[in-house]
Amino acid sequence: MNLHRISRTAKVSVVSLAMVLGLASCTLDYTVGYVYMTTNKSNPGVIDQYAIDFDSGSLSQIGTPVAAGNDPVTLVAAPNGQFVYVINQGDSTVQEFAVQGDGTLASQHVYPTGGAHPTAVAIDPQGAFLYVTNSYAAGASTGTGLVSIFPVNADNSLGTPLTPQPVGINPVGVTVSYFNHFVYVVEQQTSTTGLILGFSQNATTGALTPVPGTTIAGTAGNSVVTGYAAGVTPSAIAEEPTSRFVYVTDQTSNQLIGYTVLPSGGLLAMVNGPFATGPFPANLTIDPTGKLIYVVNYNAYTVQGYMIDGGTGTPSGVVGTVGASAVGTGTGPTCVAVDPALGDFLYTSNSLDNTVTAERVNPNTGGLSGVQNSPFNGSAAPTCLAIVPNGPHASQAIIP
Q1: Could you please report the per-residue DSSP string of 271-340?
Q2: Which of 220, 251, 336, 372 is the most exposed place for a label (fewest CB within 10 A)?
Q3: What is the pTM for the complete model shown?
């Protein structure tokens, strides 16, 4: 597979063409995308909204913070960039928002997750199914967790959920493959052993079936599982766009763990890993080209980058972002995302100083440099962020 980043000139041309065609509003001609950040200090929590300047990467607040539910902890954007789904942990709900013409969000529907204490969310690349990890079965506060499976209707509302998929203890992350219809759930299990569970996705119904190397016995709330070792206390999971490699952060051992995806959907740990991170890696993202991984270290207040080897998936340090040269964020970074429109800018949500940090991504090296006026103010206690493009863009070409 080959990944090709279009040149900066070409990307600006795409933006200009979008403006000519009226794909961006007159008042937001220079907006390449929108950042939405969940915050949970208040009850209900709120979502901060920002427009991204296509040239500088600076953020400007749009509208006023939008009410979410009780304790919004994470969110995901639909592949079409027109809807955002927020997970409210305190309510055990999914809240659907429409992205309006000016980039602000409008709440549409609220759905119970069918479990308790939801922790993570993912949507498949076709925008057909939404997956939510829950710590416990509905009405419970102990036991094992489950994955709620929602069909996504043509209008982006959520349909009647399928029978939940039982998983193990304390699931904290979920990712869906771009090409091969696999779903991976990472869970903390115990204080000493993390696991990844692998599933094949029925492309018609969204149902999940364990792949070789994953077994599940029992029912939601009372299941016994086996899977792939995932360090001590895994915190997040991501898969690169060609669906060949999966990566997990371990917040206890301060490591990034890499896996090769086998044809069966099973995982094979990379022989030269794990790879060092900073203290308490909390979250990670992979840029739209699939060439770069960025990890935020909660205790170090830093973001660090890795270049992905196209043949082996091995991540290696990016100059200017790793080790002693790691780029500083605000205090207590919780989430990291790269803008999907052009892939030129990176943002982190910072939970302890209530800000968003912005960095410019060097398209050749992956190095980061500061954006003017960063960090940008937010509401109290940011938890995560997501980015949607303003109109159609092309930052990658994935050729199987």
Answers
A1: TT--EE-SSSEEEEEE-TTSSEEEEEETTTTEEEEEEEPTTT--EEEPTTTSGGGPEE-SSSEEEEEE-T
A2: 372
A3: 0.91
